């Protein structure tokens, strides 16, 4: 069919009154049909019916015919008449020449068709219909067999896809723990599953077509939270948020929502999926735990303040006891009977121990406070000062002390000085009399913590400070008890202590978000490892 023939047909079909000359088409030996603007058949001739293998039925209510027969591309992909029509109309009314398709007849036989699609226009140039002229291409048996295999494969894949879609939609509809919604670009609700009905309380008929902001509190709508979430999802692909939402009956629930933008093939946003989970029970439990934690923290602070005040107030009467005991000992001590002198010495010793216990309690109370500010501190200066304060004991017992170069860190200087002082004091106190005392203080930068302790985050950096001695050591069973209040390493004669020092060390390390661990063996010494975050 040449182009002149196509033009002649199109001109003959449109009169000045715009009436199609259908009688001429019935006389044509070539198969011919006419589609309206929606791609539906409004006319066909007998030649077309013979190729189709059937006469399409007239749907009188709309003056159109049903589809003639299934059509497929050479790859076996199904086409509808709408597809063919749109192909012609998309080209702004330009003819579609050499249009080819495989037609499946009612008896399952297939033929190869070839033809043209010609837009029919009125005087204003508006396409009012499309003329389709086509004929069978002979000698294509081998090609049809190959196409038939494509069609069978396509139908199988199409059926599997249909079943998969049905299962997917069924799954979405049946999910009850999540509200799953489809929104259009403006946020209007397009679908509704059982989970949405359960969580939000609306029936599907009550909510379809409403804006999803209906679930938000008045104050959230006033600050345009729903619109901001849609904007965020449009710009970034996703919006995640938690907050109070409103059910149909007016009650509130704590919802965790994820809004995800949906895109077409050109990456244009065509709508949104919205998934909501009801986390009300979790939210209430977390709030209750947070309330208990705040109350416990308040009570702990009160107890710490009481301990500090009590210890501080006890210092004055104790000072008087010590003063009077020392006065009696200095003035009348030599004249007292031997038993009285013994009792007086015991009283002076007990008052001295009491003074040490009060000082340790005051130190512990101070170590429990987070009010001190962390500052950049040269730890070398602190350790030098601590070693200097123990100079007499170190010199008297010929103690060897080796110290690595320590870093500059943000710490509470007073507390870190107390930490090193307590650990060094313990190492000196529990030294061995069988060998020369040897103490090392080392530091190492690392990213791992002892087994059983999780790092704050992946790749976190820590300084590990290790104080090691070759003293009398301790039983490994006591490792976890050492840092409790009033727990002492040893009870040998001549070794005194309040049992608070290591508890103070642990409190200081916790204040600096760190970890302290102890290791020891009887007669072989002890090691204390302190892990402090680098930043």
Automatic annotation (TrEMBL):
Residues 239-291 form the PAC domain. Transmembrane segments: none annotated. InterPro entries: HATPase_C_sf, HATPase_dom, His_kinase_dom, HisK_dim/P_dom, HisK_dim/P_sf, PAS, PAS-assoc_C, PAS-like_dom_sf. Pfam families: HATPase_c, HisKA, PAS_9. It catalyses: ATP + protein L-histidine = ADP + protein N-phospho-L-histidine. Its EC number is 2.7.13.3. Residues 164-221 form the PAS domain. It is an enzyme of class 2 (transferase). Residues 144-174 form a coiled coil. Keywords: Coiled coil, Kinase, Phosphoprotein, Transferase. Residues 309-535 form the Histidine kinase domain. NCBIfam families: sensory_box. PANTHER family: PAC DOMAIN-CONTAINING PROTEIN, PHYTOCHROME-LIKE PROTEIN CPH1. This is histidine kinase. It comes from Chitinophaga filiformis (Myxococcus filiformis).
